[in-house]
């Protein structure tokens, strides 16, 4: 496989969900997510929910984006939620009502939290749908309702404010109202579908938990009538053209389709995926640019490089032909000598070999003497480099490292050849 990754399509990691089928575990990811990611120009890479995978995430590099979606309830210990407001009877009732969601999967939690934190550390584009939005909030220090039906209903809501967030009998067809927050990405995506300056749309959702305390870095994008946050994003990490996208949606825009059709309820439904992939593509380009940035030397550095190359060329002639040195050539050799003093320390064996080299031994002897007395030069070099920028130092280090390697290899070969000639 080629080591050049610049030509591959951007990769979006998606963690699978585990279920039991015919007494065997099966991992899956909803096809709508995969279709949209592929359709907009990225490659979905499925991370299997397998024990220990959270320790092997480096194996999935390069990572250009992460989409987290379906799954069970997140272990409350991750966000230290106090469940004392719910009685034991209420907790047992919740488990009976939502049996498919309340069987916590700690391994999936570990994998997805590790990926979410990686995205936050590196500013890798992240889209969280449903559980993925809850996990993003938890990863940033937010909390969740253990059960929105029990906890929000206990707040004394009016009947008109009550919302059914999950309907097991009509998963795809179920809709409830949300109010979109003005001047947010969600508003931009759905603005052509808003009627009479109203900010309401109907969304599909399938969850019994949700954001309780939103992490400080996020801004809400939509609210249900009962006050539950249905979407949020980080405004400081949102610019798809520049590869920035950190967002969570509690509802399912990918499933908001008309009955017996793949046509979306609103033209804005697929925009979350479209803009996410746009950010993923931009992030990949930015990553490749930073990795493959060529070494550029300013005019002064380029002149220095040419002087060093000229110095090495003269040294080559001296070693090969034993030519005498004029004062002009001697001064030109100075550049190479200074370079070697600062980059190459000779071994005892190399010193002994140099002393066998006839006319060259005088130059070698003076070189070795200068090498031993370079403490002052080192101090001066540190002083000069301390005033250079990080970029200048990086370029200088790369250049000197390369030249040092070449010089050491050539010098070793030359010394070996001359010693062999002397022994003959």
TrEMBL record:
InterPro entries, per this entry?
Class_I_gatase-like (IPR029062), Peptidase_C26 (IPR011697), PuuD-like (IPR044668)
Provide the E.C. number(s) assigned to this enzyme. 3.5.1.94
The kind of enzyme this is, by top-level EC class, is hydrolase
Q: Give the superkingdom in one word.
A: Eukaryota
Q: Which UniProt keywords apply?
A: Glutamine amidotransferase, Hydrolase
**CDD domains named in the record:** GATase1_2
Hydrolase keyword on record: yes
Q: Which GO terms describe its molecular function?
A: gamma-glutamyl-gamma-aminobutyrate hydrolase activity
Instruction: State what protein this is by name.
Output: Class I glutamine amidotransferase
What is the organism of origin for this protein? Medicago truncatula (Barrel medic)
